Amino acid sequence: MCGIAAVILADPRGMACPDLYEGLGLLQHRGQDAAGIVTCGPKGRLFQCKGNGMVRDVFDDNQLLRLYGSLGVGHVRYPTAGSSSMSEAQPFYVNSPYGITFAHNGNLTNARELRVFLDKIAHRHINTDSDSELLLNILANNLQKTGKFRVNEEDIFTAIKDLYEQCRGAYACVAMVAGFGIIGFRDPHGIRPLVLGRRSTSEGYDYMFASESAALEALGFTDCEDVKPGEAVIITREKVTRRQLVTGKTMAPCIFEFVYFARQDSIIDGISVYKARLAMGEALARQVVKTFGDSMDIDVVIPVPDTSRVAALQCSHTLNILYREGFNRNRYVGRTFIMPGQQTRRKNVRRKLNAMALEFHGKNVLLVDDSIVRGTTSKEIIQMARDAGAKKVYFASCSPAIRYPNVYGIDMPSRKELVAHGRNDDEIAQEIGADKVIYQKQDDLVESVRHYNPSIEKFDTAVFDSCYVTGDVDDAYMDYIEGERNDESMTALADDNDCVGLHNNFVK
Ligand SMILES: O=P(O)(O)OC[C@H]1O[C@H](OP(=O)(O)OP(=O)(O)O)[C@H](O)[C@@H]1O
Ligand SMILES: NC(=O)CC[C@H](N)C(=O)O
Ligand SMILES: [Mg+2]
């Protein structure tokens, strides 16, 4: 689940870099592994800085001052394909045709075929295992076909329309054509989010694409609108051109954006993440009442910081049971779920959360979290709650049991790693050490989100029900990605991580 951004300023003498840098910082929760910015300055020259690490680690003032130009693209990465090698940090760049830079959020499901096509038919050299590099090269190859000295909007729309036919999976993308402008487009199912905003200046409007509206809002951009599934938007200094290139596909935004990934102050596809999380907490409370019936003996509701706080608060309010912050969160440790490697994740749950005995001692506690994926967090904190003196520990999840892999940009590719795969609720409770586990029902989760935009008929809920909206995910594909991306193979790949690849001038 990466974060992407692109900016074009009305003033051609302006610097796009500060907005991109700040924007990436505001999207940091979507990817902590790598960050990058490419800007386009005078004479169409590109300036790049990218590398592994958080935004604050990758860029320093000196580098930022040298990212010249009034337009640019940026990326924060949470790897879901390839490795976490520095050479796969985005944006990616191809010089031909026209000098294109590109950043992607999502995951392709037909990457293998595209790789063969680019090699055998298009004769394009691919230098990494990243699926985003494939997407960029498909776009470049399609643009190349125009054979023109310079492209125009029509050519770009045609190239993206063809790309929609060639590429399957999830992809929200931003691109920049040197000396021309910026582009945003979203896959035909709209699995990953992308919004566009504008900011009024004395020279005209600045425009910015970002994964989430919260980033735009904080930078003073207004009139935020979602890029629609199957739509492409091209912005030059002269005009904004939008085109719906694919119609008739089911819109299916990823429900996990609302459950976990997105910031609660974002609005995605017309739905406030905050409101959706409140509704999830309320529905979860009803599920808790149903589960316990007359034997309800919960003394206190405690959230698992950070993401579940809003839902837990509303759950406690609906249950009319005290809400208490029993875990202290170390603000200097990032999100643990998106960290690479099970050992790192486990260690960081302990570094991040600490149970306060005075809220646990002698009490029956209901811990509320947004989700249970590998069970890393729940296992550790249930033990912490017990060590802090809790009598009984119940665990409630705002989403249903996650039993199937995500293949659209969340790194949970292996069924074996999912604590709920092949287990019923009692077995899960036993595995994570809880006295009872209470899961949200899928219909209630969907309704909590959909209620705020009933025009969306479907959400991507494949991790709960294995219905993959792109229609190309079968057992054979799952076996393949399981082999490629399980924790063991990823650890082996990580040993290769010092590769800085070709297009990387990451120098401090
Ligand atoms: O079952 P698991 O594999 O542990 O995954 C689920 C947990 O991971 C996430 O928290 P994370 O620490 O990433 O982020 P947060 O601080 O935003 O809650 C999520 O909110 C759950 O707490
Ligand atoms: N989480 C994402 O969106 C990742 C984008 C891309 N698949 C990568 O691994 O770099
Ligand atoms: Mg969490």
Low-confidence stretches: none
Distance from first to last alpha carbon = 27 Å
The assigned CATH architecture of the largest domain is: 4-Layer Sandwich
Radius of gyration: 23 Å
Portion in helices: 25-40%
Heterogens: 1-O-pyrophosphono-5-O-phosphono-alpha-D-ribofuranose, glutamine, magnesium ion
CATH superfamily of the largest domain: Aminohydrolase, N-terminal nucleophile (Ntn) domain
User: Number of DSSP helices?
Assistant: 18
What is the makeup of the main sheet? 7 strands, antiparallel
- Strand line-up across the major sheet: 3-2-4-1-10-9-11
Task: Determine the CATH topology of the largest domain.
Answer: Glutamine Phosphoribosylpyrophosphate, subunit 1, domain 1
How many structurally independent domains?
Answer: 2
- Average residue pLDDT: 94
> Class of the largest domain, according to the CATH hierarchy?
Alpha Beta
β-sheet strand percentage = 15-25%
The strand count comes to 21
Molecular shape: globular
Class derived from helix and strand content: alpha+beta
Binding site for Mg(2+): 307, 369-370
Enzyme class: transferase
EC number: 2.4.2.14
Active site: 2 (nucleophile)
Short description:
By secondary structure, the protein is an alpha+beta fold. The protein has helices at residues 17-26, 55-58, 61-65, 111-120, 131-144, 153-166, 213-218, 255-261, 273-292, 309-319, 342-352, 357-360, 376-387, 425-432, 442-450, 462-465, 475-485, 487-494; strands at 3-8, 34-40, 46-52, 71-77, 92-94, 100-108, 169-177, 181-186, 195-201, 204-210, 222-226, 231-236, 240-244, 267-268, 271-272, 300-303, 327-329, 353-355, 364-369, 392-397, 436-439.
